[in-house]
Amino acid sequence: MASFKPTKIQVYPKLGEKVTQDTLYWKNYKAPVQIKEFGAITSIDFSPVAPHNFAVTAFTRIHIYGPFSQEPVKTLTRFKDTAYCGRFRSDGQLLVAGCEDSVVRLFDVSGKAALRMFRGHTKAVHVTDFTSDRYQILTGSDDYTCRLWDIPNATELNSYREHTDYVRCGVTSKLNRDLFITGSYDHTLKLFDARADKSVMTMDHGQPVESLLLYPSEGLLVSAGGRHVKVWDLLKGGQPLVSMKNHHKTVTCLCLSSNGQRLLSASLDRHVKVYNTTNYKVVHNFDYAASILSLALAPNDESIVAGMTNSILSIKHRKSPEESAEVSGQQRRTPSYRVFVKGKNYAPKQDDYLVSKPVKQHLAKYDKQLRTFNVSNSLDTALTWTRLRKPEITVAVIKELDRRGTLKNALAGRDEQWLARLLNFLIGNLVDPRFAAVLAPAAEMILDVYRRVVGQSPLVDRQLLRLQELLEREIDYQQDLLEVLGMLDTLFASSLPRLEVPHPGTSRCFYWASCNYTF
Amino acid sequence: MVEHGDIRVVHRGGSKINSREPVVTNDSRFLLCASGERVKVFSTSTEECVHDLRGHTDLVTGVLLRPTNHLQVYSCSVDGTVRLWDFTDGILIKTYDIGYPVYAIYASANHEGVFFIVTPTQSDNRSELFQLVAVHLPQSGDQLVEAQELSAVLSNVSSNPAATGFGRGGEYIASAKGLHLEVYFFKKQKSYRFSLKEDNKKGGKNTLMCIACHPKDDCIATGHEDGKIRLWRNFNHKKEYTYTTLHWHHNAVSSLRFTPEGTNLLSGGLESVLVQWRYNQESERDFLPRLGSAITHIAVSPDGTLFCTSHSDNKITIIQSCVKVSAVIQGLVNGESVRTDLMVDPRSKSLVLNGKPGHLQFYSLQRDKLLYNLDIVQQEYIHELGLQQFEVVKVAFDAPGNWMATVEERKPKAAEPEINLKLWAFDEQTQSFVLNTTVSAPHEAQITSMCFSQAADGQTSMLVSASEDGHFKAWQLPRSACTEDEGPSWSCDFVGDYRGLAPQCCCFSADGSLLAVSFQEVVTVWSPASWELLTTLSQPPKAIRDLCFGRLGCSKYLMGTTASNLLCCWNLLTCSLEWSTSMDVSLLLSDPLTENMAAFCCQAESTDLFVFKPSEPRPVASLKAVCSGKVTRAVFAPREEMLESCEESSQWLNRSQLYFLTQHMDLMTFTTKAEEDRLAASSKQLFIDDSVAMTPFYLLLGKHRKQENQDSLTRLSAELMPLPRGSLAIKELLQSPAHVLPSTSVLCSMFVESLLVSVADGSEESKHAEEEMESEKEEEDSEGEMESRTPRPEPASPGLQSAESAAPALTKAQLKELRRVKKLDHGWLADLLLS
């Protein structure tokens, strides 16, 4: 004999991206701290030593922030013009920065005035870096040259004049003091060896190169330029491995997570994409308010710092374990395990006589009332679920009543208070696309049933007016959506290649947009 | 049944068992019910079909225990005969030829030698008027008797058997029709007529639906269309009659029955709740709810221990009198319409179609038994007239049977249809399908066609659904993307359309590399790998009706039928029409195991079948006038074992069998002569092996008596072949199916006995034992007589008395003496003679 089948509560798919380990990891950051700087933030660099301060280069200053401070702990202001590329040395004591006035300045982190000034470039210096032996400085400039400087003597060691356009990015090897790589707007990447006078390797990126990144093993090189991010294998003589095109504007900055498993790329399109470094698929995506020029990750991914063109610095700190546990701890405390197994693990003894008891089916209260055809009461019970923020259950019961053909009976004969509650629920959920198909007929039915008494209660009338307003707004919104859809269709149709066979208008990813309402 | 040389069209199971009220035998061990042209005997404890009483040539309309002999049963049929059967052995005893179609049969113990039947008033079958006629049975010993002594009792009765009943041991007969109740008293030879108003004040309808008479008291219970039950008393007066009203049902009462002692009244209707009212204390009621579907008939066993309810979903429920369900006999549910196509489950090889509302039924074709019902909708079924329910409208299986897709649909009045697409995965552990994905509103309009990709590699599963909203969608199961807490689920991969036309049918090629979707008169061919439109084929002027790819060697052909009576064959290598012919094909389907295709053509009220290969213009087989009316549902079911038929015309039946549903929802199939012979042989074997009525004692004795009968000269049965004893027992053991064998303890003694060298050797010793058993044998002899196929000599029954009259007249004592002599063991005598 069949038993009562409880009302099926529809499980609605969660919209948006799927929850993966990556989304959990990258979402586990607090709300960003935003700091206004004086101009576009072109560079952010973390100090490699303990407190991990970071230097933010913006306009004519370099601010050094502490890991949790919102005020700069240090400000370097001795620049005549826009500063570029403030970099820490590997011991965290010295900082080098280029400048629009072509002078490269070396600072002591504790002092204010420049220790050394390297003059020799004829145009703005956008690239500065220390070599791994800590005694030399690499610079790249808009005069198409890149130079090596000696710190103790403040002299120029060598000058490389191979690029044919601005040199805008460069990176030194952390393992070999003589190797460094520069990228230029002439679309090429060049690997130099300080022991030789010429570049030892040249790779063509295809677009003006904006950013370079070496893997910790230094076998792979990542370059960003135009919309492309490319990975090169240096050990195979600069063979291109992967080319990724996930941004729709120029990629400006590259950065690697601390464990080397994830690659981050920031772009002028206001997005930061996180790639898996094994298959180079995008696993996560951040949105920012403006075009991003610079991005840096603190050691151990403790914070993500992004600098934008609108001179806003956004700092996101990782949640501490207590804080992340707090979110899940908000759920209702469930009874302990002991309560559930109560007596169930009792093993019968040999001479025990087992009395079989029919298993009682557990039913929710509204199901019990539905079983006895108590339709009005079951609707009352279902409405109380709204307080628990579960409109699915109320909607499921309304749908079930509609299927049984008794929704009208359940809705009729109510008082003012109750009707106001129901209308409140409708106002909250009617325009939700998941519930509209069920709630729209119910709303019509309410209007049918209570048409005669409209105007008797100011409370109900006010809510009816709100409902009407809501619907009008929704209709306008839908109309706008349809217009956008029409525009998209024309765009897609014009971009499709002309085939000999009359091609149908296939809409692969935009079919969701066609869910229009019928009011 | 139509013969076509070698191939015959035969009924294959699934006939209705709920058309008429079932009958429970006196000892409550068997249940008899009319099923199509047969009467089926079920065991009430095991639910197995024990016998199949075959003989009628048209629909059986009534089954009735013979009041004077509880081991015999009457059955009446539209073919104009009433037959008397012995149901324990399944033997036809007598046939009474009435000459008119019989719609119901009644008898009572008070009226010996008479039974009452309902026949049309005019001799032509189409008349709407029926009359109750008493038939006096002629005394004759012949098998076939013509009954001509007919006398009308009541005119203008209802043809519904539930609307007439005998009261108080046959003193009166009551009949209801429309708004009138008529009671005829046999003693007074007078009838009374009572009428009700058409509508009562509250708008309920008073039409009488069924009737039941109290067995001891002067009381008639009538069930009405508005759900009321009226208890009529004092009805032997024209004016002073009274009635009381009972009301619980909210829809029409379809059946009423008093228990044999008259203490309780049972009623049932659409609500599928059996209500038990205490007689005279009607406020006390017992309910047995959730019986599954509407109750159509209620029967009570003569001793009152069992109730049977037959239901609208072709089911009989056996209920103990303590209101507890003890057994369920379920037939193939073919309701008003089969919405899903006929399908064959690739794993269980069972036929799949929609059955009970919201369910799919899996029906074993080999065993003619419902395997299980799968709940698709998973919602509480509300038993109410006029309510729009969810119906399963489409089913598809993938080739290995791992996935099943179902579409359910509900059309509320003046609202958009609700459609759900569900995908079910086969669970090895529970051996059934488990819901994997539910897609609500997969399309905006009705889904017209659905099919799985036939890809043999089993790597990717793909489902394509076409809908009237002008799109077809491909659904795919992603391989990798699944998180640890939930398994993979299906999602939409592609949405395609063609010039805004509505797709009608879709079909994958045998290797899954091509998808053909028909849009009106255009067939579009797509590549599922890249979703590119490869080519379009069309054969105007009318829309495509059916599409079908060729299989195996003919996989380069695409077959299509159009509404303008064309059967087209396109070659996909040249993208051109290979051949076409003009015929009105109502259904086209391909055999998955061979290259053959079957086309059902509708021509002048009857259907022809053509079986052909797409590569050959000449059909492999053509059968004319397979059945009347249009065939719209058919399926090729693979055979369990291949047939070895060498004749060319029946070779297409070797690997698979073709089943189809006729207009009247009969399930038919095609068989060859050889197959039928084999089936008949196996059924005969089964029949001999039937062991339900056997006791261990009977087995030992019965075996012995068979040998005895060989010695004696009175050999009557030609069916019992003289076989070597040992081999017979062993053969029985080995060849009969395990489920019909008695328990091992029973078989053991028989088996051991068969291993003995010979009973005759030890006859001297056994003789003493034999004499001790003599008295017990006396009791057993009635069954022994049946074994030898002679009518049971029972002086009370007039029909059989005449059979005896042919022999010289003997007194009872003489007869008994003669039988004892016959039964003595003459084995020793034979031994003496031989030695």
Automatic annotation (TrEMBL), chain A:
Q: Which Pfam families match?
A: UTP15_C, WD40
Q: Could you tell me which residues the WD repeats occupy? A: 118-159, 244-285
Residue limits of the U3 small nucleolar RNA-associated protein 15 C-terminal domain? 345-491
CDD domains named among the record's database cross-references: WD40
Q: What is its main location?
A: nucleus
InterPro entries tied to this protein: U3_snoRNA-assocProt_15_C (IPR018983), WD40/YVTN_repeat-like_dom_sf (IPR015943), WD40_repeat_CS (IPR019775), WD40_repeat_dom_sf (IPR036322), WD40_rpt (IPR001680)
Location relative to the cell? Nucleus, Nucleolus
Q: Which residues form a coiled coil?
A: none
Tell me the keywords, alphabetical order. Nucleus, Repeat, rRNA processing, WD repeat
Per the record, its GO cellular-component terms are: nucleolus
Any single GO BP term: positive regulation of transcription by RNA polymerase I
What superkingdom does the record give? Answer: Eukaryota
Q: What PANTHER family has UniProt attached to this entry? A: U3 SMALL NUCLEOLAR RNA-ASSOCIATED PROTEIN 15 HOMOLOG (PTHR19924:SF26), UTP15 U3 SMALL NUCLEOLAR RNA-ASSOCIATED PROTEIN 15 FAMILY MEMBER (PTHR19924)
What the protein does? Ribosome biogenesis factor. Involved in nucleolar processing of pre-18S ribosomal RNA. Required for optimal pre-ribosomal RNA transcription by RNA polymerase I. Part of the small subunit (SSU) processome, first precursor of the small eukaryotic ribosomal subunit. During the assembly of the SSU processome in the nucleolus, many ribosome biogenesis factors, an RNA chaperone and ribosomal proteins associate with the nascent pre-rRNA and work in concert to generate RNA folding, modifications, rearrangements and cleavage as well as targeted degradation of pre-ribosomal RNA by the RNA exosome.
Summarize the subunit comment. Answer: Part of the small subunit (SSU) processome, composed of more than 70 proteins and the RNA chaperone small nucleolar RNA (snoRNA) U3. May be a component of the proposed t-UTP subcomplex of the ribosomal small subunit (SSU) processome.
Task: Report what the protein is called.
Answer: U3 small nucleolar RNA-associated protein 15 homolog
Q: Which organism is it from?
A: Cyclopterus lumpus (Lumpsucker)
The top of its lineage is: Eukaryota, Metazoa, Chordata, Craniata, Vertebrata
UniProtKB/TrEMBL annotation, chain B:
One Pfam family, short name please? Answer: Beta-prop_WDR75_2nd
GO terms assigned for molecular function = RNA binding
The reply on keyword rRNA processing is: yes
Q: Could you tell me the superkingdom of the organism this chain comes from?
A: Eukaryota
Could you confirm whether the keyword Transcription regulation appears in this record?
no
Q: PROSITE patterns in the record, alphabetically?
A: WD_REPEATS_1 (PS00678), WD_REPEATS_2 (PS50082), WD_REPEATS_REGION (PS50294)
WD repeats: which residues?
Answer: 53-95, 201-232, 246-287
Region (Disordered), start-end ranges: 762-811
Q: Where in the cell is it found?
A: Nucleus, Nucleolus
**What is any one of the record's Gene Ontology cellular component terms?**
small-subunit processome
Sequence ranges assigned to domain WD repeat-containing protein 75 second beta-propeller in this UniProt record: 342-665
Write down what this protein is called.
WD repeat domain 75
Whose protein is this, by species?
Answer: Cyclopterus lumpus
* Gene that encodes it: wdr75
